[in-house]
Amino acid sequence: MIQSPDLPLWAAIIVGIFVLLGASITLIGALGLIRLNSFYERVHPPTLGPTLGTICILVASITCFSTLQSRPIVHELLIGLFVTMTTPVTLMLLARAAVYRDRKEGSPDVPQE
Amino acid sequence: MKRILPFPLLSATLFTMWVLLTGFSPGHIVIGAAVAVIVSRVMLALQPEPSNIRISSAIPRLAGLVFVDILRSNIAVARIVLFKPKERKSGFIHLPIELQNPYALATLAVIMTATPGTLWLQHDARNRRVLIHVLDLVDESEWVDLIKNRYERLLMEIFE
Prior knowledge:
The complex is a heterodimer.
Chain A: H1 9-35, H2 39-42, H3 49-68, H4 76-104
Helix pairs in contact in A: 1-3, 3-4
Chain B: H1 8-22, H2 26-40, H3 42-46, H4 58-83, E1 91-96, H5 102-114, E2 118-124, E3 129-134, H6 140-159
Antiparallel strand pairs in B: 1-3, 2-3
């Protein structure tokens, strides 16, 4: 097990809570892939990971490295920004492909143009 | 000014990004400035449509709103996944939209898809409407209201 003796107790607690929270939220998002029924419903839950999940992990990372190096480390904000801005593109692409196919097959669940 | 920095906002963003990534040292501030000036000129070759973003209090207000909505809808979607409420139904909505600026529409698309629970599918420029999919569809007009009043007004302020 890797020890980090330089991290004070209060920081270790904050980092631990946020890492666990972020990981749990991402896990819930992944669970949604199994538990929901249709493709369009299943597109929604994975966004939990790139939004709140990422935010929690980044807060933990900022706290950890700002305390260890005793200066504010904020470049994690860039990770958050890029992840949040790019994931929707993939999701839209997937959903558009599904809509296109469903319309072509004349599926009654999808509104026609 | 326009000749040296054709895209001032892009240059400022590149500079901030460089300094954030490398740490505040005089050498990197100089390199960052050079990168910001030279790299932003690459965009000249692409000839993008001018965006005319108005810098006002609407931008931080929109950012705050998006942050709060992302938190709230994360909790809502997590609850749906964990407890699977029986009466929930999902569905498609045709959302009438007045925004026409492509940058504003792209921003709205990213905001709505990044927020768990709503998914942007298709923008129909001719009929001025957007097809969205909502995970927890209770009342269609409520969603239309929410998006029109919450986001569209602010985006109009920023982009149009």
